[in-house]
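Appendix C: a fully annotated inverse folding record. The material below is reproduced so that readers can follow the format used throughout the book. The structure is listed first as tokens, followed by the designed sequence.
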């Protein structure tokens, strides 16, 4: 899915051959092009880019590769992290932080301006994390490949809640602010409810 620049004048899109481009939104003319050559299972750059709140950088998670921020002006690499992205990152516009499920079995919080890691949570035997979602102002929720639902304090990385759903739980958590819905590998939908900032209030509604 292409990203649209803050000014609405540019589009940013990647392709399966490792090419990532900025296009003029009106004419389709190429503003700049980057080609990423690397070893690994995948070469593609056709992931979903994110425009950071400054408007001066676009976040590009390369499958089986680096997470990087490119200049929206000319495609220059502003920073790069060798995390090995497993699932799409979650960007918190308000705090300008990025939550990244790594291919190394950790989930990271990065400063969007610099790419510096502020904390990393090792998930251990629980496996790899799906794309996180927000649960109120202070928490993120995600599933893992070998366990189930996990909820972390987004500021510290501390684990606040877990619920075993079995292996193969890679479907991202859905949230409407009051409930969490999780579909496991056996197509069982589990619904949780919570009151904001009170994770001890989680309860199983249906399974």
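Designed amino acids, in order:
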């Amino acid at each position: 899915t292409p990203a649209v620049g803050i000014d609405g004048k540019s589009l940013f899109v990647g392709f399966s051959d490792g090419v990532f481009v900025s296009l003029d939104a009106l004419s389709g003319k190429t503003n700049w092009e980057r080609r990423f050559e690397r070893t690994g299972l995948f070469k593609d750059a056709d992931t979903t880019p994110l425009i950071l709140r400054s408007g001066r950088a676009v976040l590009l998670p390369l499958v089986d590769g680096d997470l990087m921020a490119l200049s929206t002006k000319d495609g220059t690499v502003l920073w790069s992290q060798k995390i090995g992205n497993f699932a799409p990152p979650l960007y918190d516009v308000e705090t300008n932080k990025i939550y990244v499920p790594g291919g190394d079995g950790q989930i990271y919080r990065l400063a969007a301006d610099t790419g510096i890691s502020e904390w990393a949570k090792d998930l251990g035997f629980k496996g790899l994390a799906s794309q996180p979602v927000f649960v109120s102002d202070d928490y993120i929720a995600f599933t893992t490949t070998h366990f189930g639902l996990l909820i972390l304090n987004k500021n510290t990385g501390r684990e606040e809640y877990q619920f075993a759903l079995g292996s193969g739980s890679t479907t991202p958590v859905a949230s409407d602010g009051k409930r969490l819905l999780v579909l496991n590998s056996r197509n069982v939908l589990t619904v949780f409810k919570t009151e904001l900032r009170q994770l001890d209030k989680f309860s199983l509604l249906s399974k």
